[in-house]
UniProtKB/TrEMBL annotation, chains A, B:
It comes from Cryptosporangium aurantiacum. Signal peptide: none annotated. A divalent metal cation binds at residues 139, 170, 196, 244. Residues 470-616 form the VOC domain. This is 3-dehydroshikimate dehydratase.
Amino acid sequence: MRRDGLRTALATVCLSGTLEDKLTAAADAGFDGVEIFEPDLVAAPLSPGDVRVRCADLGLSIDLYQPFRDLDSTDPDRFAANLRRAERKFDVMAELGADTVLVCSSVSPDAVTDDDRLAEQLATLADGAARRGVRIAYEALAWGAHVNTYEHSWDVVARADHPALGLCLDSFHILSRGSDPAPIADIPGEKLFFLQLADAPHLSMDVLQWSRHHRLFPGQGAFDLPAFLRPVLAAGYAGPLSLEVFNDVFRQADPVPTAVDARRSLLALAEATARAEAATAGAVAEAPADGAAAAEAPADGAAVAGAVGAGRRAAPATVAIDPVNAPAPPLAGHAFVEITAEPHAAGQVGAALSALGFVRTGRHRTKPVERWEQGRARVLVNARGNDGAALGALAVESADPPAAARRAQRLLAPLLPRERGPAEADLAAVAAPDGTPLFFCRTGAGGPGGWSTDFVPTREAPRAGIGITGIDHVGLSEPFDHFDEAALFYRSVLGLTPVSAGEFAAPFGLVRGRALTDEARTVRVALTVARLRRGDWAPAVADPQYVAFATDDVLAAARAARDAGAPLLAIPDNYYDDLGARLELPPERLAAYRDLGVLHTVDHPDGGVYLQVGTELLGGRLFLLLVQRVDGYDGYGWADAPVRMAAHRRNRLVRTTL
Amino acid sequence: MRRDGLRTALATVCLSGTLEDKLTAAADAGFDGVEIFEPDLVAAPLSPGDVRVRCADLGLSIDLYQPFRDLDSTDPDRFAANLRRAERKFDVMAELGADTVLVCSSVSPDAVTDDDRLAEQLATLADGAARRGVRIAYEALAWGAHVNTYEHSWDVVARADHPALGLCLDSFHILSRGSDPAPIADIPGEKLFFLQLADAPHLSMDVLQWSRHHRLFPGQGAFDLPAFLRPVLAAGYAGPLSLEVFNDVFRQADPVPTAVDARRSLLALAEATARAEAATAGAVAEAPADGAAAAEAPADGAAVAGAVGAGRRAAPATVAIDPVNAPAPPLAGHAFVEITAEPHAAGQVGAALSALGFVRTGRHRTKPVERWEQGRARVLVNARGNDGAALGALAVESADPPAAARRAQRLLAPLLPRERGPAEADLAAVAAPDGTPLFFCRTGAGGPGGWSTDFVPTREAPRAGIGITGIDHVGLSEPFDHFDEAALFYRSVLGLTPVSAGEFAAPFGLVRGRALTDEARTVRVALTVARLRRGDWAPAVADPQYVAFATDDVLAAARAARDAGAPLLAIPDNYYDDLGARLELPPERLAAYRDLGVLHTVDHPDGGVYLQVGTELLGGRLFLLLVQRVDGYDGYGWADAPVRMAAHRRNRLVRTTL
């Protein structure tokens, strides 16, 4: 951004690799600055002066040096030694050109517990810092021995009342303790020296372990970060929005996409905060003028026009949002899914679609792609794949495809170059984190987003179908390193809401699932990932993708499909014996389930029943699913996914040589 | 075992795969029986009758069907429905031929909290079970809504006083709560229907999550399982020793080695329990006769001769140990390590050894293997490798090599076939879990374990060396799926004790470490593993192996090595600036460290200092290390391992094209 709004920064500890790897990745992703995590510098061959030059070359400022631990001490000799240690770090900072250092509250048994004495020790440190042109940002660790809340850290900083001493606020330390962030708005903005942002899932574990291993980028976890950011901005904070995320997966993943994911999280957070701000704007008397001005500015960043440098509470801080980055245009369902398959597998997929009641309604003008339709379900089968069958592309119905694509790019989704003939529709596609193209469409329309005109009608006879009404959802198995990234991508780029998160024990290891949908439930995406990577021994079948078709009568649909020769997946009798023991279903219903291979799942906290019938695997790791949602069921049937996965494994053992 | 001692069993939930995969793996590892975990059966295409036949074919008994959840209810209709559900499960058990079912204490909000009423409901269930020839083993889950201690479960079972109702004891549920297992000895043995064993690391987290994801096989975690098992056997428990281990890694790893690891854990536990028993035997008046008899029996299993079928407390149960499975013969250091390298890398290794003051003292009679020596450090360089350089074999000095090898085989270590010439020594080697050969030797001796005679002396001139006195330890980077297995292997087969466990944030992700040693610290093995698997982007250099040589003066040794041209690893200046700030070392000492690349580590809770100087990587992923332990330092310098890893990464970037 590096524009009028707040700046974005990234702590080097967020990324994997050496310091050199990290700086390059942060710069490439567009960050304005970095926090230098001390262990990264200590292990680097670059001198602090070299790092300063490297950062300058990359256009990165060094916004924070961190962390300095266990400053205060009840032992005067220890405290004196700690001050000498700090002086050495001020030397390093001078070479780096960094003017703010993070000092954590002590976790040591000799931590000072008298607040006046603590304030005095911090002021002594701040004196030394001021002589070197350095500022101390004091942070309460959630597990600090004495100081472990932001209120307490603010009390100590206020007592010390030293111009070179201020606060560092970290959303994890504050929200993990359940502290209310609202009173932050009452802290003078000029005493907020630094802001570190991190999200996290709700976990019932030791807070230190939770912090060190499970932090996430904003929007990937369970914390309400807009509600945290608003009082910070309202207080007049004018420093960077900086990410400090300790995460085991990110720590071992390619830093380049992780840095993009990180920056996307801040862009999305800025937008969400602005929207929350806007929603309450009517209630804020002073806001409109500034907000409106910012909204009209031609800025092309996801600008967070905070009250930069404003005096305390002169006006409530406003997070402005520029017009291009307005909310995602409304969605109206899945436009189509494309299945890419090598020719033989494409034949298998076509035969299965036909048996499921689909009609081949069109052939692409220039490519080996067929269009199949039933109800509002549309499937393109692209015979240009070269390895089995896979989901080749997703497409959503958007109220404004060009705006949606621009917004996606603003959220750092790469625009995909498309090869198209002169008469073909100009469809904008961006790449999801796993590389899958995502199209923004307006089915049936001409102009941007119109795609149907690329197909020559086949004039095949219309059929009644088997009762499929549309695409219920797509099931994507994500690469291990990109699961949280994918969830944030669909959340931010499509404006979806995470609705389900879960974990289940599948035959080849634990699988984590997360699903996202729009408010009207017209677009649903279900993501899964193996919690650990697959062992060498686990078959590829452990990670299938699928397309789920909606029906209002899964029994009738499955029966019709089977009669037409659909390769329905056989489910073991044991499952039905257990189902009968658990639920005491009417015998004829249970018999019909058993006959057709229907899974009957009741795993959603809000109730309802999920009925699903799958096909065998087509081309190795793709299957089709018929689903019926009964009584408002809003989940994805994960409780029965292990049964389906075992059946697919058997299916594959029978049909192929593994 | 299926001999006179207690039998061994494995819950299918311990392993990855389908039910068919699991049964085969359990049988291959030599288990006598299995617990059938219900979700495994539900997802299986085999009918319960088929499973019965399959198990019989494999020589497995079905010792338990599990689990039946949430039986009791304050709602009479619900309780009636639960009884009907149980009847369906009794049907399944009849087909399976299983006579014991595990019933967990309820976690439901409608759990009965009146103990008399609860006992009554359990007795009602037991009535139904008795009619079907089934026994109910009631278990207190550590997170049960009302019943969550074994004492409470026993109280309820005693109140019910029903012959078909007894207890299931699970070491995890009992030890995770910190309960004292000793009073178990007072429970009548005939009421202990089943015993489930699991170990676990100490973790500060929700007990349900701890249980579901982090259990380990006995000997891999932190629980004192011999102290748990002894009162159970003393009570007269005569059922199988059965493992129920929910572990995320095992759940996705090849079930065949995991099952071997599992059975090894029971053999080692039986031995450890017997040893604990023997240690206190003098204090037990009735024991000697039985114990001595068992010790002379020619049993070839790691026999646990419990008081099988004995009436309650007729005599204290004795865990007998047969002579072959006596404690590991004492160790007296590393005999040698073998480095296997392709010819060019072997040259690099030889040059480095020479610069480190080693003398090439011998050449193998028939193989391209050279022997290098200095002090008691012996290194074989085998030029028959085909990919860089790696640790090819470990060898320990054993007081009785043949006994040690027999013992290793009894602990399921595969004996390695060896190709050897007619005049060559007959050295017994077994394979560690990662395939590395492990030799039992008697250096300098003839006969079994004598290996020196295989080498023709070179008659190269003796040299003073650089002060290396021996091998301090070997550093092994383990495959992700086999880390806990490797730790248990070295612990049980070599009789080592785990002394250090830790985790550190390395440049390419978190690394977990565990070290094992004998009491006298003559043999040390340090194991590391990447906590998550490496991303595609992390370099091979992230997982190096090494040999650490001991010296009493690392500065002198490093200086001499450098003067001789050893490729010492350069450590960044930043490290020394930080070290100076942290420790205020004398300037000349710091300067010497900086000059030579010495890492100075003070991370062990018992104190002391670890000084280490590494070489660059030799042949890609192996390096040599000089270490000096000051003031009794007993760790492995993990706090500075990330600095070394970053330096190796740089070293490799400079020297090769990645």
